[in-house]
Amino acid sequence: MEKKIPFETLESRKRKIGRFTIVQDCVRVNGYEQSYDYLEIREGVSILPIRDGNILLQRQYRYPVRSWQWELPGGFIDPGETPEEAAGRELREETGYSVKELKSLGAFYPSFGSTCEKIWLFVAECGEEGKSDREPGEIIQIKEVTEDQFRVLVAEGQFMHGAGLATWARYLSVRSIESNR
């Protein structure tokens, strides 16, 4: 596999808008100059929460798509926080549950052609239930479903959360490999 970086950055401009940064670069690739625009987004986490063998799902109104969506807990990693710490914090804030056991499933890039965002994936065995600490603009409903019910939501296209789908796929892959050992 070739390790040489084929792009040379000639100029880079950044513009921060809310929680996103728009990057506009001028690059040279294959002797040709072109613009390359992408979003710079902080790293985040996505957590598959399991409680007594069931999965805790969130139903949240997502303004950009103007609809209620099923999803897994997650969010940005705060400055100075590890992905593991962020996963525990986000699970507690959004669901009210603490982490009894946390297992890393690695990371993924949701759309590396248009953003440098990296999301760390986890499966969490839920501990004690406490009080959630949601942001003022978050409207979240929690629903506990069986694994079979969740599979139906995924298969029927009712669960459309990209990071959640990646977490689920990684979880199933790891579980399959571990059970075949």
Detailed description of the structure:
It contains three helices and ten strands. With 181 residues, it is an alpha+beta fold. Strands 4, 5, 6, 7, 8, 9 and 10 form a seven-stranded mixed β-sheet that branches. A three-stranded antiparallel β-sheet has the order 1-2-3, with no helix packed on it. A hairpin with a 4-residue loop joins strand 5 (54-62) and strand 6 (67-71). The radius of gyration is 19 Å and the shape is globular. The model has no long low-confidence stretch (mean pLDDT 95).
Strand content: over 45%
Over all CA atoms, what is the radius of gyration?
A: 19 Å
Report the sheet with the most strands, covering strand number, pairing sense and barrel closure.
Answer: 7 strands, mixed
Number of helices: 3
Portion of residues within helices: 10-25%
Q: CA-to-CA gap between the ends?
A: 29 Å
β-strand number: 10
Q: How would you spell out the order of helices and strands?
A: EEEEEEEHEEEHH
> What is the residue-averaged pLDDT?
95
Low-confidence stretches: none
Global geometry: globular
Structural class: alpha+beta
Describe the structure using short key phrases.
single chain, 181 residues, alpha+beta, seven-stranded mixed β-sheet, three-stranded antiparallel β-sheet, 3 helices, 10 strands, 46% strand, globular
Quick rundown:
This protein is of the alpha+beta class.
Topology at a glance:
Layout: E1 7-17, E2 20-29, E3 32-40, E4 44-51, E5 54-62, E6 67-71, E7 74-76, H1 83-95, E8 97-108, E9 119-129, E10 140-145, H2 147-155, H3 162-179
Parallel strand pairs: 4-9
Antiparallel strand pairs: 1-2, 2-3, 4-5, 4-7, 5-6, 5-10, 8-9
